[in-house]
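Bump. Still looking for Pigment protein structure tokens.
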Amino acid sequence: MRASEVVARTEALIPVLRERAAMVDELRRMPPETVADLKAAGVARLYQPMRFGGCEADMRSGVLALSAVGRGCGSTAWSFVQHLTHNFMLSQWPDQGQHDIWDDDPACLVSGIFIPSCGRARSIDGGYVLSGRWPLVSGVSTADWCLFAAFVDGGGVDTHRYFALPRADIEILDTWHSLGLKGSASNDVVVTDVFVPAHRTLVIGQLKGGPTPGKAVNKGVLYRTPSYAIFGVYISAAVLGIAEAGLELYLEGARRRLALSSGQKVGGYPTQQVKIAEASAAVAAARQLLLSVCDEAGAIAARDGLPDDEQRAKFRSHAAFAGRLAARAVEQLWDAGASSSVYEANPMSRIYRDMSVAARHFTQNWDVNGSTHGRVLMGYELGDPTL
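Sorry for the wait, here they are.
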């Protein structure tokens, strides 16, 4: 499976994903046919190791595929961000843990959440006993496995760990009743006294880009990139896709629409033209910003290097700024649509709601992510333990 083929197959699905977007909202999850289509396209397996049948693709391919899914359906893209990135994270796990998950079904879907304060684990012989309740577990309705972060009682360097659990060991609570991204199924998950063998856990700090058990067996360039510094790139890729869909759909309607007050074509008004131009420029700039992070992070990994503090902070802040540009584009389109945008039958209504929710993700918070980069640029220490 070649990455370019995965991207091409995903782009070919945009029309059908767009047709199903309203149904995804109504169902509040992806329908089985959408899951089957995207599994057949290979989206979630772009970052899976080749030894399990995955692509081991470069970062660019992930951005291209996820933004294409976002052009079709924001909720679906949000779910597949999780399925793609958690396959990447699993590549860092101990070898036996990877075999536990991928031997039976190499095409299984994985989701999870990084909120260690929501879980507690205690160490016992051979592993850990995990309990907790985690919110906002996007894509969990279609996940076969889940990764949860938790604190381990007793302190020490491994106090913060990730745990991999099969679907049978979790309870999904129907809590995701939201303004937008309705079909992402970002529900709460409860785990109660579940044993997790040590080989299905990983110290969270190892995902910053240093040595991991998985790198001993997965030696590709992709797996040398720091998970936490670049995670926002993939969230922003989905956000970009939502904005690109908004621009395409708005232009499709606005070129035909007549102003109620004058009967003239809306597209002839300079106020419309300048808003469309700004939205188009914002979307294009967001795409280039994300791809530039992919190229720089990939080049560092290809040299078997690690990004320094300024580069880590930059990767995260540039991803957040790309998301900010995409959100601004949708705001411009929403304003340009005036009263026509507010009808549920208008797909711009869903796009606006999806973007409103997506922009609240921590990776999209410009004040937090921008200030971290600015702090380093001004000569201060990084000050962010997750980087």
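Residues 225-377 form a domain with the Butyryl-CoA Dehydrogenase, subunit A; domain 3 fold (CATH 1.20.140.10).

Edit: fixed formatting.
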